[in-house]
Model the fold of this input.
Amino acid sequence: MSIVVQHAGKEIGVPPSRVLSDISLEIQDGEFVALTGRSGSGKSTLLYLLSSLDTPSEGKIEISGKDLQKLNSDDLHLFRNRHMGFVFQFHYLIAELTALENVLMPTVKLHQKEKRRPAAESLLEQFGLKEKMARLPRQLSGGEQQRVAIARALVMEPQYLFADEPTGSLDSVNGDIVMKIFIDVNLKNKTTVVLVTHEPDFARLARRQILLKDGRIQQP
Ligand SMILES: Nc1ncnc2c1ncn2[C@@H]1O[C@H](COP(=O)(O)OP(=O)(O)O)[C@@H](O)[C@H]1O
Ligand SMILES: [Mg+2]
Done:
């Protein structure tokens, strides 16, 4: 199983401006890939296409053998919920819910909240938050909040983990902790990790780097 992109491109805006051109790549299950490049090079846009949060203007994207453009939006939501985890620069935790309840959010729609509770607790424990599960987001540090968001992304044991500058608002100690979590998840669970980062030190930790420049893949 894999993510396969064939000649995908993206135009955005009115009048349209070209953001991605002729992107072809293949990411095998279990890979750890970094999407790198300067600000504005198209990293986030490509991640959104890979993860079905956005659709290409042309070309084709398949995940696990499915052509995502052929799925209706219910099936797409279900597929995403079940098989994909997302982490962004900002955590988007729900302010009124405890850390544990936030982690359990993706399980609610799938009616797996009670089934997944032990997994949610175990993730928070692994991430050093055992004593803080009942806290609200504002009672946690920035690094802790991001770890809660990562636990939320992992609670369904997704095959794919997509992260857009997840260390972008963290200090270097917490950035290193987050990277270590991604590396562990990739090794232990064979989760495919696609990480957007403009930081070369983090990109180097991936087994493969894809460098974007002006919306095109630069061959190394
Ligand atoms: N919604 C949008 N409307 C117009 N231009 C956009 C939009 N989103 C992204 N762009 C442009 O597309 C290019 C790539 O953006 P992005 O994928 O966010 O780059 P990166 O994540 O590498 O910083 C940039 O030039 C950006 O200004
Ligand atoms: Mg970006």
The beta strands are 2-12, 17-28, 32-36, 58-63, 66-67, 84-87, 160-164, 192-196, 208-213, 216-218. The longest strand covers residues 17-28. The CA atoms of residues 129 and 144 lie 8 Å apart. The helical segments are 43-50, 73-83, 99-108, 113-126, 142-154, 172-189, 200-203.
